[in-house]
Amino acid sequence: MCNSHLYAHTHPHTHEPAPLLTRRNLLRLSALGLATAALSACARGRAAVQTVPTVENLQPADLAGFAAFRQKVTVLRDERYFLIESDGMAAHEMMAGIRSWQQQVPLPQPYHGANAWRIPTVPKLAAAPISARTALFRGAIAIAVDGVPIFNALNNRGDDTLLVGELDDFGGHAGRADDYHYHTAPLHLQAQAGTGNPIAYALDGFPLYGLLEPDGSLVFGLDEFNGHADAAGRYHYHATRTYPYINGGLRGEVTVSDDQVEPQPHTTPVRPWLQPLRGATVTGFTRVGESSFILEYALDGRTHQVRYRFAGAHYTFEFVGPDGAVRTETYERPRGE
């Protein structure tokens, strides 16, 4: 079996055990300075041997759109990749508006160092592009300029995640690893990213712009991947308000393993994942501090809260009922994560 996330992302966010040649083992090899490692022959659009960047040969880099978020997002590069470091937490109110809630909450993720997001420095069009209508249901397919990953707009049942009520008012939600990510275009980033700048980059390296061209003109002639080339022949994607919302797949060369793009970061849950809570609507999300949060939801006309916080590797979740009764659960993040 091809290598994959330690915990793979699907919808519902199903996490499968990793095979012997895991992403973590590859990253450990890179940390030892072994810059190349063999991936399985299921590579697609590129040779089956992939260079894994090391942390020693990286340099700071500028990439259009990220400047407004430099306090929380770091861009580095080596000869093959831009590396995007972040904690995956959006600055806006997350989760509010979800009508089909999986009882997950946003937690900071370790998208740093060898576990950063990677996009090619020189993207190339693929001879066999991959459509998100029929593939790429695991893992991210793009990274927004605020450091939040973007997943396929369809869940693993083939349903539009927006139309079935799984997303918040900004087009995102938390997966089974309590990892926040978008499924539709983060159009709210257009103003922050700046005129003419992308709001995201697909994992094939091509930029994703908002509803207009970089010069402010209207968008015409998009292909099935929500992309086209400009007058100079430079391919790029665009956001749309209707499906596929984001890049509708990957027009560029990538390596795909077990239906997800590799390499990409792994996420490790700190607690067991939960089942969807039928009838619940998430009504609010508050940051109490850097490491403390409150998610509020309504169920049967009554208000409930999930108050959670962490200190180092220790996580505390308090589930507060309408009558004020509190159930507390505590967890420890696995060592080394």
Q: What does the model show?
A:
The chain is mainly beta and 337 residues long. It folds into 2 domains: 23-262, no CATH class; 281-332, no CATH class. 4% of the residues lie in helices and 31% in strands. It has helices spanning 23-31, 189-193; strands spanning 36-38, 49-51, 59-60, 74-77, 81-85, 117-120, 125-131, 140-144, 149-151, 172-174, 180-182, 200-202, 207-209, 227-229, 235-238, 249-252, 255-257, 260-262, 281-289, 292-299, 302-311, 314-320, 326-332. The strands form 7 sheets. A 6-stranded mixed β-sheet has the order 9-8-12-13-15-14, with no helix packed on it. A 5-stranded antiparallel β-sheet has the order 19-20-21-22-23, with no helix packed on it. A hairpin with a 4-residue loop joins strand 12 and strand 13. It is globular, with a radius of gyration of 19 Å. The two termini are 24 Å apart. 42% of the residues are buried. The model is unreliable at 1-51 (pLDDT under 50).
The count of helical stretches stands at 2
Structural class: mainly beta
Unreliable stretches: 1-51
How many distinct beta strands? Answer: 23
Order of helices and strands: HEEEEEEEEEEEHEEEEEEEEEEEE
For the largest beta-sheet, the strand count, sense and barrel status come to: 6 strands, mixed
Give the percentage of residues in beta strands: 25-35%
Shape summary: globular
Distance between the termini: 24 Å
Strand order of the largest sheet: 9-8-12-13-15-14
Report mean pLDDT, rounded to a whole number.
87
- Helical amount: under 10%
Radius of gyration: 19 Å
